Hints:
The protein is α+β, with helices and mostly antiparallel strands.
Amino acid sequence: METVNNEYYSFQVNLQGMISLLSEHLYSNPGTFIRELLQNAVDAIAAFRQLDEHLIGDIRITLPDAGPAGNPFVFQDNGIGLKENEIHEFLSVIGESSKRKSAEDARTFIGRFGIGLLSCFVVSDEICIETRSAFDATGFRWTAFNDGRYRIETLQETMPVGTKVCLTPKKSHAHLFRPENFIPQIKFYGDALPEKITIRTGKEEKVLNEQPPVWLHPDTSKEALLQMGKELFQTSFIDAVRLRTEAGECEGVLYILPYKTQFSARQHHRIYLKRMLLSEADNGLLPSWAFFVKMVVNSNTLSATASREFFMQNDLLRAARKEIGKALKSYLKNIRNIDFEIYQKIIQIHFLHLKAIAAEDTEFLSLILDDLPFETNKGFRTFKDIREHFPVIYYCADYEEFRQVQRIAEYQGALVVNVAYTFEEDLIKKIKGMQPELNIREMSSSKLLETFTDISEDEKKAYRAVLKKLEQYTKPFNCVMQLKYFAPADTPAIFTRGDEDFTSATIKKIKANDNPFAGALGSIQQRAEAVNTFCLNMNNGLVKNLLTIDDDYMLQAITEVLYVQALLMGKYPVSEKQLLLFNNALHSLLVMGMKNFIQI
Protein backbone atom coordinates (compact mmCIF):
# COMPACT_ATOMS: atom_id res chain seq x y z
CA MET A 1 0.00 0.00 0.00
CA GLU A 2 1.31 3.47 -0.92
CA THR A 3 0.94 6.61 1.18
CA VAL A 4 -0.99 9.45 -0.46
CA ASN A 5 1.50 12.04 -1.76
CA ASN A 6 4.15 10.22 0.36
CA GLU A 7 3.21 12.46 3.27
CA TYR A 8 2.68 11.64 6.99
CA TYR A 9 0.29 13.48 9.28
CA SER A 10 0.16 14.10 13.02
CA PHE A 11 -2.76 13.40 15.33
CA GLN A 12 -4.70 16.45 16.50
CA VAL A 13 -5.89 16.77 20.11
CA ASN A 14 -9.15 18.47 21.08
CA LEU A 15 -8.05 19.99 24.39
CA GLN A 16 -11.58 20.75 25.61
CA GLY A 17 -12.58 17.16 24.88
CA MET A 18 -9.49 15.97 26.76
CA ILE A 19 -10.45 18.16 29.75
CA SER A 20 -13.95 16.68 29.72
CA LEU A 21 -12.47 13.19 29.60
CA LEU A 22 -10.19 13.92 32.55
CA SER A 23 -12.93 15.43 34.71
CA GLU A 24 -15.47 12.71 34.00
CA HIS A 25 -13.34 9.57 33.89
CA LEU A 26 -9.68 9.81 34.91
CA TYR A 27 -10.08 11.92 38.05
CA SER A 28 -12.69 10.97 40.65
CA ASN A 29 -13.54 14.53 41.77
CA PRO A 30 -13.00 18.12 40.55
CA GLY A 31 -10.84 18.86 43.61
CA THR A 32 -8.14 16.64 42.13
CA PHE A 33 -6.30 19.75 40.87
CA ILE A 34 -5.30 20.42 44.48
CA ARG A 35 -3.55 17.08 44.66
CA GLU A 36 -1.92 17.55 41.25
CA LEU A 37 -0.51 20.97 42.10
CA LEU A 38 0.77 19.71 45.43
CA GLN A 39 2.31 16.68 43.77
CA ASN A 40 4.11 18.75 41.11
CA ALA A 41 5.45 21.08 43.79
CA VAL A 42 6.75 18.20 45.91
CA ASP A 43 8.44 16.61 42.87
CA ALA A 44 10.03 19.93 41.88
CA ILE A 45 11.44 20.34 45.40
CA ALA A 46 12.71 16.74 45.33
CA ALA A 47 14.49 17.47 42.03
CA PHE A 48 16.14 20.59 43.47
CA ARG A 49 17.16 18.64 46.59
CA GLN A 50 19.27 16.37 44.34
CA LEU A 51 21.40 19.47 43.69
CA ASP A 52 21.16 20.92 47.20
CA GLU A 53 20.65 18.32 49.89
CA HIS A 54 20.13 21.03 52.52
CA LEU A 55 17.16 22.58 50.70
CA ILE A 56 14.14 23.15 52.94
CA GLY A 57 11.00 22.68 50.88
CA ASP A 58 8.50 25.52 51.00
CA ILE A 59 5.03 25.61 49.45
CA ARG A 60 2.95 28.79 49.68
CA ILE A 61 -0.72 29.05 48.71
CA THR A 62 -2.83 32.18 48.41
CA LEU A 63 -6.58 31.72 48.19
CA PRO A 64 -8.58 34.20 46.05
CA ASP A 65 -10.57 36.94 47.75
CA ALA A 66 -14.33 36.87 47.49
CA GLY A 67 -15.88 39.10 44.82
CA PRO A 68 -15.31 39.61 41.08
CA ALA A 69 -12.23 41.82 41.53
CA GLY A 70 -10.47 39.49 43.94
CA ASN A 71 -6.89 38.32 43.53
CA PRO A 72 -6.27 35.03 41.70
CA PHE A 73 -5.42 31.69 43.28
CA VAL A 74 -1.64 31.29 43.63
CA PHE A 75 0.30 28.08 44.30
CA GLN A 76 4.05 28.64 44.68
CA ASP A 77 7.00 26.33 45.42
CA ASN A 78 10.79 26.68 45.72
CA GLY A 79 11.47 23.66 43.52
CA ILE A 80 13.88 23.30 40.63
CA GLY A 81 11.81 25.31 38.11
CA LEU A 82 11.86 25.04 34.30
CA LYS A 83 14.03 26.46 31.51
CA GLU A 84 12.41 27.83 28.33
CA ASN A 85 12.98 24.67 26.28
CA GLU A 86 11.58 22.59 29.16
CA ILE A 87 8.43 24.72 29.19
CA HIS A 88 7.84 23.87 25.52
CA GLU A 89 8.70 20.22 26.11
CA PHE A 90 6.92 19.46 29.37
CA LEU A 91 4.13 22.00 29.84
CA SER A 92 2.92 22.27 26.27
CA VAL A 93 3.01 18.60 25.24
CA ILE A 94 0.25 16.44 26.71
CA GLY A 95 1.64 13.20 28.06
CA GLU A 96 5.23 14.48 28.34
CA SER A 97 6.74 14.54 31.83
CA SER A 98 9.94 15.97 33.24
CA LYS A 99 9.94 13.10 35.76
CA ARG A 100 10.06 10.10 33.44
CA LYS A 101 13.72 9.91 32.53
CA SER A 102 15.05 6.99 34.55
CA ALA A 103 14.30 4.31 37.12
CA GLU A 104 15.84 6.55 39.76
CA ASP A 105 13.36 9.30 38.85
CA ALA A 106 10.51 6.85 39.39
CA ARG A 107 11.81 6.24 42.92
CA THR A 108 12.21 9.98 43.64
CA PHE A 109 9.09 11.50 42.12
CA ILE A 110 5.41 10.85 42.77
CA GLY A 111 4.03 11.68 39.30
CA ARG A 112 5.41 10.87 35.86
CA PHE A 113 2.58 10.82 33.31
CA GLY A 114 2.61 14.48 32.17
CA ILE A 115 -1.17 14.97 32.35
CA GLY A 116 -1.65 16.26 35.91
CA LEU A 117 -1.55 19.94 34.99
CA LEU A 118 -4.57 19.46 32.74
CA SER A 119 -6.70 18.94 35.85
CA CYS A 120 -6.37 22.71 36.42
CA PHE A 121 -8.40 23.31 33.26
CA VAL A 122 -11.30 21.57 34.99
CA VAL A 123 -11.56 24.52 37.41
CA SER A 124 -10.05 27.37 35.39
CA ASP A 125 -10.23 28.47 31.74
CA GLU A 126 -6.71 29.86 31.92
CA ILE A 127 -3.47 28.68 33.53
CA CYS A 128 -0.62 31.10 34.15
CA ILE A 129 2.73 29.71 35.31
CA GLU A 130 5.77 31.79 36.22
CA THR A 131 8.94 29.74 36.64
CA ARG A 132 12.68 30.13 36.95
CA SER A 133 15.05 27.22 36.64
CA ALA A 134 17.89 26.59 39.06
CA PHE A 135 20.11 26.49 35.93
CA ASP A 136 18.98 29.85 34.50
CA ALA A 137 18.95 33.45 35.76
CA THR A 138 15.90 34.31 33.62
CA GLY A 139 12.31 33.62 34.52
CA PHE A 140 9.46 32.92 32.11
CA ARG A 141 5.68 33.22 32.09
CA TRP A 142 3.66 30.48 30.35
CA THR A 143 -0.01 31.27 29.77
CA ALA A 144 -2.31 28.55 28.44
CA PHE A 145 -5.96 28.66 27.40
CA ASN A 146 -8.51 25.87 27.26
CA ASP A 147 -8.86 26.21 23.47
CA GLY A 148 -5.32 24.84 23.04
CA ARG A 149 -3.40 28.13 22.63
CA TYR A 150 -0.45 29.15 24.80
CA ARG A 151 2.24 31.81 24.88
CA ILE A 152 5.62 32.24 26.59
CA GLU A 153 7.01 35.56 27.81
CA THR A 154 10.32 36.48 29.40
CA LEU A 155 9.92 38.03 32.85
CA GLN A 156 11.55 41.42 33.19
CA GLU A 157 11.59 41.33 36.96
CA THR A 158 13.77 38.94 38.95
CA MET A 159 12.08 35.99 40.62
CA PRO A 160 13.49 33.32 42.96
CA VAL A 161 14.10 29.78 41.73
CA GLY A 162 10.84 27.89 41.70
CA THR A 163 7.38 27.91 40.14
CA LYS A 164 4.19 29.90 40.71
CA VAL A 165 0.85 28.72 39.31
CA CYS A 166 -1.99 31.24 39.02
CA LEU A 167 -5.60 30.26 38.33
CA THR A 168 -8.78 32.28 37.88
CA PRO A 169 -11.55 30.00 39.16
CA LYS A 170 -14.57 29.27 36.99
CA LYS A 171 -17.81 30.43 38.57
CA SER A 172 -19.02 26.82 38.60
CA HIS A 173 -16.00 25.77 40.68
CA ALA A 174 -15.37 28.88 42.78
CA HIS A 175 -16.59 27.08 45.90
CA LEU A 176 -13.58 24.75 45.75
CA PHE A 177 -11.27 27.70 46.49
CA ARG A 178 -13.10 28.86 49.61
CA PRO A 179 -11.06 28.29 52.80
CA GLU A 180 -13.66 25.98 54.37
CA ASN A 181 -13.42 23.69 51.32
CA PHE A 182 -9.81 24.13 50.20
CA ILE A 183 -7.96 23.84 53.53
CA PRO A 184 -9.43 20.42 54.49
CA GLN A 185 -8.50 19.13 51.02
CA ILE A 186 -4.89 20.32 51.15
CA LYS A 187 -4.57 18.84 54.66
CA PHE A 188 -6.13 15.61 53.44
CA TYR A 189 -3.48 15.15 50.76
CA GLY A 190 -0.48 16.84 52.36
CA ASP A 191 -0.64 16.31 56.13
CA ALA A 192 2.31 13.88 56.06
CA LEU A 193 4.58 15.85 53.70
CA PRO A 194 7.93 17.07 55.05
CA GLU A 195 7.67 20.29 52.98
CA LYS A 196 6.22 23.24 54.88
CA ILE A 197 2.81 24.24 53.51
CA THR A 198 1.74 27.81 54.25
CA ILE A 199 -1.69 29.09 53.29
CA ARG A 200 -2.75 32.72 53.08
CA THR A 201 -6.36 33.84 53.29
CA GLY A 202 -6.80 37.59 53.19
CA LYS A 203 -4.20 38.98 55.60
CA GLU A 204 -3.79 35.80 57.62
CA GLU A 205 -1.08 33.19 57.11
CA LYS A 206 -1.02 29.73 58.66
CA VAL A 207 1.32 26.74 58.44
CA LEU A 208 -0.81 23.64 57.92
CA ASN A 209 1.73 20.93 58.77
CA GLU A 210 3.89 22.29 61.56
CA GLN A 211 4.15 18.94 63.36
CA PRO A 212 5.51 15.84 61.59
CA PRO A 213 3.10 12.85 61.50
CA VAL A 214 3.37 10.83 64.70
CA TRP A 215 2.84 7.53 62.85
CA LEU A 216 6.13 7.94 60.99
CA HIS A 217 8.16 8.71 64.12
CA PRO A 218 9.91 5.56 65.41
CA ASP A 219 9.67 6.63 69.06
CA THR A 220 5.93 7.28 69.11
CA SER A 221 4.27 5.30 71.90
CA LYS A 222 1.48 2.81 71.27
CA GLU A 223 -0.88 5.03 73.27
CA ALA A 224 -0.15 7.97 70.96
CA LEU A 225 -0.68 5.77 67.88
CA LEU A 226 -4.02 4.55 69.24
CA GLN A 227 -5.08 8.14 69.97
CA MET A 228 -4.12 9.17 66.44
CA GLY A 229 -6.10 6.22 65.04
CA LYS A 230 -9.12 7.24 67.11
CA GLU A 231 -8.96 10.82 65.80
CA LEU A 232 -8.39 9.70 62.22
CA PHE A 233 -10.98 6.91 61.96
CA GLN A 234 -13.32 7.74 64.90
CA THR A 235 -12.68 4.25 66.29
CA SER A 236 -11.17 3.00 69.54
CA PHE A 237 -8.97 0.22 68.19
CA ILE A 238 -7.91 -2.89 70.09
CA ASP A 239 -4.25 -2.44 69.21
CA ALA A 240 -1.79 -0.63 66.95
CA VAL A 241 0.93 -2.58 65.13
CA ARG A 242 4.08 -1.01 63.71
CA LEU A 243 4.75 -1.96 60.07
CA ARG A 244 7.84 -1.84 57.88
CA THR A 245 8.58 -3.71 54.63
CA GLU A 246 11.55 -3.95 52.31
CA ALA A 247 9.43 -4.40 49.19
CA GLY A 248 7.88 -1.05 48.35
CA GLU A 249 9.62 0.52 51.37
CA CYS A 250 6.33 0.64 53.25
CA GLU A 251 6.14 2.12 56.74
CA GLY A 252 3.16 2.80 58.96
CA VAL A 253 0.66 1.36 61.40
CA LEU A 254 -1.90 -1.46 61.27
CA TYR A 255 -4.93 -0.97 63.52
CA ILE A 256 -6.93 -3.95 64.85
CA LEU A 257 -10.67 -3.26 64.63
CA PRO A 258 -12.77 -3.60 67.83
CA TYR A 259 -15.82 -5.05 66.06
CA LYS A 260 -16.67 -7.94 63.75
CA THR A 261 -16.45 -7.40 59.99
CA GLN A 262 -17.71 -9.32 57.00
CA PHE A 263 -15.27 -10.96 54.60
CA SER A 264 -16.68 -8.74 51.86
CA ALA A 265 -16.28 -5.53 53.90
CA ARG A 266 -14.10 -2.80 52.43
CA GLN A 267 -12.33 -0.69 55.05
CA HIS A 268 -11.21 2.92 54.70
CA HIS A 269 -7.46 3.38 55.09
CA ARG A 270 -4.90 6.15 54.60
CA ILE A 271 -2.43 5.08 51.91
CA TYR A 272 0.44 7.45 51.06
CA LEU A 273 2.98 7.46 48.26
CA LYS A 274 6.18 9.31 49.13
CA ARG A 275 4.27 10.80 52.10
CA MET A 276 1.46 12.23 49.98
CA LEU A 277 -2.01 10.73 50.28
CA LEU A 278 -2.81 8.42 47.40
CA SER A 279 -6.05 6.68 48.37
CA GLU A 280 -8.39 5.54 51.13
CA ALA A 281 -8.72 2.07 49.56
CA ASP A 282 -6.24 -0.66 50.50
CA ASN A 283 -4.94 -0.73 46.89
CA GLY A 284 -4.15 -4.43 47.14
CA LEU A 285 -1.64 -3.92 49.93
CA LEU A 286 -3.54 -6.09 52.42
CA PRO A 287 -3.88 -9.88 52.10
CA SER A 288 -7.34 -11.12 51.11
CA TRP A 289 -8.08 -12.32 54.67
CA ALA A 290 -7.08 -9.12 56.50
CA PHE A 291 -10.50 -7.45 56.63
CA PHE A 292 -10.16 -6.86 60.38
CA VAL A 293 -7.49 -4.15 60.14
CA LYS A 294 -7.23 -0.54 59.03
CA MET A 295 -3.89 0.89 58.06
CA VAL A 296 -2.01 4.14 57.75
CA VAL A 297 0.91 3.35 55.45
CA ASN A 298 3.41 5.24 53.32
CA SER A 299 5.34 3.66 50.44
CA ASN A 300 8.44 5.23 48.96
CA THR A 301 8.93 2.99 45.92
CA LEU A 302 5.58 1.63 44.74
CA SER A 303 4.20 3.13 41.51
CA ALA A 304 0.91 4.94 41.00
CA THR A 305 -1.51 4.63 38.09
CA ALA A 306 -2.18 7.52 35.68
CA SER A 307 -5.02 8.83 37.87
CA ARG A 308 -2.63 8.72 40.87
CA GLU A 309 -5.40 7.26 42.99
CA PHE A 310 -4.22 3.62 42.99
CA PHE A 311 -1.03 1.59 43.06
CA MET A 312 -0.03 -0.33 39.96
CA GLN A 313 -0.70 -4.04 40.33
CA ASN A 314 2.78 -5.43 39.75
CA ASP A 315 5.35 -7.78 41.29
CA LEU A 316 6.61 -5.14 43.71
CA LEU A 317 3.10 -4.58 45.10
CA ARG A 318 2.57 -8.34 45.46
CA ALA A 319 5.87 -8.64 47.32
CA ALA A 320 4.87 -5.79 49.66
CA ARG A 321 1.48 -7.46 50.31
CA LYS A 322 3.23 -10.72 51.16
CA GLU A 323 5.48 -8.96 53.68
CA ILE A 324 2.52 -7.19 55.28
CA GLY A 325 0.75 -10.55 55.61
CA LYS A 326 3.81 -12.05 57.29
CA ALA A 327 4.09 -9.07 59.64
CA LEU A 328 0.44 -9.39 60.67
CA LYS A 329 0.79 -13.13 61.27
CA SER A 330 3.96 -12.52 63.29
CA TYR A 331 2.11 -10.00 65.46
CA LEU A 332 -0.76 -12.44 66.09
CA LYS A 333 1.74 -15.13 67.05
CA ASN A 334 3.60 -12.86 69.48
CA ILE A 335 0.74 -10.95 71.09
CA ARG A 336 -0.41 -14.11 72.91
CA ASN A 337 2.71 -13.97 75.07
CA ILE A 338 3.02 -10.19 75.20
CA ASP A 339 -0.55 -9.22 76.12
CA PHE A 340 -2.96 -12.14 76.61
CA GLU A 341 -5.91 -9.80 77.23
CA ILE A 342 -5.54 -8.21 73.79
CA TYR A 343 -5.01 -11.66 72.28
CA GLN A 344 -8.29 -12.90 73.79
CA LYS A 345 -10.19 -9.87 72.46
CA ILE A 346 -8.84 -10.50 68.97
CA ILE A 347 -9.80 -14.18 69.18
CA GLN A 348 -13.31 -13.44 70.44
CA ILE A 349 -14.07 -10.79 67.82
CA HIS A 350 -12.12 -11.91 64.74
CA PHE A 351 -12.00 -15.70 65.05
CA LEU A 352 -13.51 -16.19 61.57
CA HIS A 353 -10.70 -14.16 59.97
CA LEU A 354 -8.09 -15.96 62.06
CA LYS A 355 -9.50 -19.26 60.83
CA ALA A 356 -9.05 -18.00 57.27
CA ILE A 357 -5.36 -17.37 58.03
CA ALA A 358 -5.01 -20.74 59.79
CA ALA A 359 -6.58 -22.59 56.86
CA GLU A 360 -3.58 -21.65 54.71
CA ASP A 361 -0.84 -21.53 57.38
CA THR A 362 -0.21 -24.76 59.31
CA GLU A 363 2.29 -23.17 61.69
CA PHE A 364 -0.16 -20.42 62.62
CA LEU A 365 -2.94 -22.98 63.06
CA SER A 366 -0.82 -25.02 65.47
CA LEU A 367 -0.15 -21.91 67.53
CA ILE A 368 -3.74 -20.69 68.00
CA LEU A 369 -5.84 -23.84 67.47
CA ASP A 370 -6.64 -24.50 71.14
CA ASP A 371 -7.92 -20.94 71.56
CA LEU A 372 -10.17 -20.84 68.48
CA PRO A 373 -13.92 -20.96 69.26
CA PHE A 374 -16.24 -23.23 67.27
CA GLU A 375 -20.03 -23.23 67.14
CA THR A 376 -21.39 -26.55 68.42
CA ASN A 377 -24.72 -28.04 69.45
CA LYS A 378 -23.56 -27.27 73.01
CA GLY A 379 -22.82 -23.59 72.32
CA PHE A 380 -19.51 -21.96 71.40
CA ARG A 381 -16.51 -23.87 72.75
CA THR A 382 -12.77 -23.55 72.27
CA PHE A 383 -11.06 -26.39 70.47
CA LYS A 384 -9.11 -27.19 73.63
CA ASP A 385 -12.36 -27.70 75.52
CA ILE A 386 -13.76 -29.82 72.69
CA ARG A 387 -10.80 -32.19 72.42
CA GLU A 388 -10.42 -32.54 76.21
CA HIS A 389 -14.07 -33.41 76.93
CA PHE A 390 -15.33 -35.32 73.90
CA PRO A 391 -13.69 -38.53 72.66
CA VAL A 392 -15.46 -38.20 69.28
CA ILE A 393 -15.70 -34.87 67.49
CA TYR A 394 -18.50 -34.79 64.94
CA TYR A 395 -18.86 -31.98 62.41
CA CYS A 396 -21.49 -30.84 59.89
CA ALA A 397 -20.40 -29.00 56.76
CA ASP A 398 -23.97 -28.00 55.91
CA TYR A 399 -25.81 -25.55 58.13
CA GLU A 400 -29.23 -27.07 57.48
CA GLU A 401 -27.87 -30.50 58.43
CA PHE A 402 -26.41 -29.00 61.61
CA ARG A 403 -29.77 -27.51 62.56
CA GLN A 404 -31.45 -30.87 62.00
CA VAL A 405 -29.08 -32.97 64.10
CA GLN A 406 -28.10 -30.59 66.92
CA ARG A 407 -31.06 -31.26 69.25
CA ILE A 408 -31.03 -35.05 68.90
CA ALA A 409 -27.23 -35.20 69.07
CA GLU A 410 -27.42 -33.22 72.30
CA TYR A 411 -29.62 -35.91 73.88
CA GLN A 412 -27.26 -38.59 72.62
CA GLY A 413 -24.44 -36.87 74.49
CA ALA A 414 -22.62 -36.23 71.20
CA LEU A 415 -20.89 -32.96 70.29
CA VAL A 416 -21.36 -31.68 66.74
CA VAL A 417 -19.33 -28.78 65.36
CA ASN A 418 -20.86 -26.49 62.76
CA VAL A 419 -18.24 -25.97 60.04
CA ALA A 420 -20.60 -24.53 57.43
CA TYR A 421 -18.92 -21.11 57.59
CA THR A 422 -16.26 -19.98 55.13
CA PHE A 423 -12.92 -21.78 55.56
CA GLU A 424 -14.14 -23.95 58.46
CA GLU A 425 -14.63 -27.24 56.60
CA ASP A 426 -11.11 -26.94 55.15
CA LEU A 427 -9.88 -26.08 58.63
CA ILE A 428 -11.43 -29.10 60.39
CA LYS A 429 -10.05 -31.41 57.70
CA LYS A 430 -6.63 -29.83 58.14
CA ILE A 431 -6.86 -30.39 61.91
CA LYS A 432 -7.79 -34.02 61.27
CA GLY A 433 -4.66 -34.44 59.15
CA MET A 434 -2.45 -32.63 61.69
CA GLN A 435 -3.73 -34.55 64.72
CA PRO A 436 -4.65 -38.08 63.54
CA GLU A 437 -4.96 -39.21 67.16
CA LEU A 438 -8.22 -37.22 67.40
CA ASN A 439 -11.41 -39.04 66.44
CA ILE A 440 -12.96 -36.51 64.04
CA ARG A 441 -15.94 -37.67 61.99
CA GLU A 442 -18.34 -36.04 59.58
CA MET A 443 -21.95 -36.03 60.80
CA SER A 444 -25.23 -35.80 58.91
CA SER A 445 -28.81 -36.60 59.75
CA SER A 446 -28.47 -39.96 57.99
CA LYS A 447 -25.26 -40.80 59.87
CA LEU A 448 -26.93 -39.81 63.11
CA LEU A 449 -29.20 -42.86 62.71
CA GLU A 450 -26.15 -45.09 63.10
CA THR A 451 -25.75 -43.86 66.68
CA PHE A 452 -29.30 -44.97 67.66
CA THR A 453 -30.04 -48.29 69.38
CA ASP A 454 -31.62 -50.98 67.19
CA ILE A 455 -34.65 -52.95 68.36
CA SER A 456 -33.99 -56.51 69.50
CA GLU A 457 -34.55 -59.62 67.36
CA ASP A 458 -37.65 -60.45 69.38
CA GLU A 459 -39.05 -56.98 68.74
CA LYS A 460 -38.33 -57.32 65.04
CA LYS A 461 -40.43 -60.49 64.95
CA ALA A 462 -43.20 -58.95 67.02
CA TYR A 463 -43.48 -55.79 64.88
CA ARG A 464 -42.79 -57.37 61.49
CA ALA A 465 -46.42 -57.23 60.32
CA VAL A 466 -47.13 -53.67 61.41
CA LEU A 467 -43.77 -52.49 60.05
CA LYS A 468 -44.70 -53.95 56.67
CA LYS A 469 -47.90 -51.89 56.71
CA LEU A 470 -45.98 -48.74 57.67
CA GLU A 471 -43.57 -49.28 54.79
CA GLN A 472 -46.50 -49.46 52.39
CA TYR A 473 -47.87 -46.17 53.70
CA THR A 474 -44.57 -44.30 53.22
CA LYS A 475 -43.40 -46.04 50.03
CA PRO A 476 -44.87 -43.31 47.75
CA PHE A 477 -42.52 -40.86 49.44
CA ASN A 478 -39.35 -42.80 48.69
CA CYS A 479 -38.77 -43.78 52.33
CA VAL A 480 -37.51 -46.81 54.19
CA MET A 481 -38.93 -47.44 57.67
CA GLN A 482 -36.85 -48.05 60.80
CA LEU A 483 -37.66 -48.62 64.44
CA LYS A 484 -34.96 -47.45 66.88
CA TYR A 485 -34.46 -46.22 70.43
CA PHE A 486 -33.14 -42.69 70.76
CA ALA A 487 -33.46 -39.56 72.87
CA PRO A 488 -35.25 -37.31 73.43
CA ALA A 489 -38.29 -39.45 74.16
CA ASP A 490 -40.67 -36.59 73.29
CA THR A 491 -39.59 -36.82 69.63
CA PRO A 492 -41.80 -39.51 68.04
CA ALA A 493 -40.02 -39.69 64.69
CA ILE A 494 -37.26 -38.21 62.56
CA PHE A 495 -36.79 -37.99 58.82
CA THR A 496 -33.38 -38.06 57.15
CA ARG A 497 -32.54 -37.48 53.53
CA GLY A 498 -29.37 -38.87 51.98
CA ASP A 499 -27.13 -37.09 49.49
CA GLU A 500 -28.21 -39.35 46.66
CA ASP A 501 -31.85 -38.39 47.13
CA PHE A 502 -30.82 -34.75 47.03
CA THR A 503 -29.13 -35.47 43.69
CA SER A 504 -32.31 -37.13 42.45
CA ALA A 505 -34.39 -34.13 43.51
CA THR A 506 -32.00 -31.81 41.70
CA ILE A 507 -32.17 -33.87 38.51
CA LYS A 508 -35.96 -33.88 38.61
CA LYS A 509 -35.94 -30.09 38.93
CA ILE A 510 -33.60 -29.83 35.93
CA LYS A 511 -35.93 -32.04 33.89
CA ALA A 512 -38.94 -30.00 34.93
CA ASN A 513 -37.21 -26.89 33.56
CA ASP A 514 -36.50 -28.54 30.18
CA ASN A 515 -32.79 -28.24 30.72
CA PRO A 516 -30.85 -29.55 27.67
CA PHE A 517 -28.59 -31.62 29.96
CA ALA A 518 -31.51 -33.51 31.50
CA GLY A 519 -31.14 -36.49 29.16
CA ALA A 520 -27.51 -36.98 30.04
CA LEU A 521 -28.43 -37.04 33.73
CA GLY A 522 -31.08 -39.73 33.40
CA SER A 523 -28.74 -42.61 34.16
CA ILE A 524 -27.60 -40.88 37.34
CA GLN A 525 -31.16 -40.63 38.62
CA GLN A 526 -31.67 -44.38 38.30
CA ARG A 527 -28.98 -44.87 40.94
CA ALA A 528 -30.35 -42.12 43.22
CA GLU A 529 -33.60 -43.58 44.55
CA ALA A 530 -34.84 -44.89 47.92
CA VAL A 531 -32.32 -43.31 50.29
CA ASN A 532 -34.68 -41.44 52.66
CA THR A 533 -35.29 -42.84 56.12
CA PHE A 534 -38.35 -42.41 58.34
CA CYS A 535 -37.39 -43.56 61.83
CA LEU A 536 -39.89 -44.07 64.67
CA ASN A 537 -38.68 -43.58 68.25
CA MET A 538 -39.36 -46.65 70.40
CA ASN A 539 -38.87 -44.53 73.51
CA ASN A 540 -41.92 -42.46 72.61
CA GLY A 541 -45.30 -43.43 74.16
CA LEU A 542 -47.30 -42.48 71.06
CA VAL A 543 -45.16 -44.72 68.86
CA LYS A 544 -45.56 -47.68 71.26
CA ASN A 545 -49.34 -47.23 71.13
CA LEU A 546 -49.21 -46.79 67.34
CA LEU A 547 -47.66 -50.23 66.89
CA THR A 548 -50.60 -51.86 68.72
CA ILE A 549 -53.37 -50.31 66.58
CA ASP A 550 -55.42 -52.85 64.62
CA ASP A 551 -57.42 -50.28 62.62
CA ASP A 552 -55.52 -49.88 59.34
CA TYR A 553 -57.17 -46.55 58.51
CA MET A 554 -56.20 -45.06 61.86
CA LEU A 555 -52.70 -46.57 61.63
CA GLN A 556 -52.17 -45.02 58.21
CA ALA A 557 -53.55 -41.61 59.22
CA ILE A 558 -51.34 -41.35 62.35
CA THR A 559 -48.28 -42.54 60.41
CA GLU A 560 -48.82 -39.90 57.72
CA VAL A 561 -49.22 -37.17 60.36
CA LEU A 562 -45.98 -38.27 62.06
CA TYR A 563 -44.21 -38.36 58.70
CA VAL A 564 -45.08 -34.75 57.81
CA GLN A 565 -44.37 -33.66 61.40
CA ALA A 566 -40.88 -35.21 61.10
CA LEU A 567 -40.31 -33.23 57.89
CA LEU A 568 -41.28 -30.02 59.64
CA MET A 569 -39.15 -30.73 62.73
CA GLY A 570 -36.18 -31.49 60.48
CA LYS A 571 -36.79 -28.18 58.65
CA TYR A 572 -37.11 -29.96 55.32
CA PRO A 573 -39.24 -28.34 52.60
CA VAL A 574 -42.79 -29.71 52.51
CA SER A 575 -44.46 -30.09 49.13
CA GLU A 576 -48.10 -29.39 48.32
CA LYS A 577 -48.64 -33.14 47.98
CA GLN A 578 -47.27 -33.76 51.48
CA LEU A 579 -49.38 -30.93 52.95
CA LEU A 580 -52.47 -32.43 51.30
CA LEU A 581 -51.54 -35.79 52.82
CA PHE A 582 -51.23 -34.16 56.24
CA ASN A 583 -54.61 -32.43 55.95
CA ASN A 584 -56.37 -35.58 54.72
CA ALA A 585 -54.85 -37.63 57.55
CA LEU A 586 -56.02 -35.11 60.16
CA HIS A 587 -59.46 -35.10 58.59
CA SER A 588 -59.62 -38.90 58.78
CA LEU A 589 -58.61 -38.87 62.42
CA LEU A 590 -61.26 -36.24 63.21
CA VAL A 591 -63.96 -38.22 61.42
CA MET A 592 -62.95 -41.44 63.19
CA GLY A 593 -62.91 -39.61 66.49
CA MET A 594 -66.39 -38.18 65.90
CA LYS A 595 -67.78 -41.62 65.03
CA ASN A 596 -66.35 -43.09 68.20
CA PHE A 597 -67.80 -40.16 70.19
CA ILE A 598 -71.27 -40.70 68.65
CA GLN A 599 -71.10 -44.43 69.37
CA ILE A 600 -70.22 -43.71 72.96
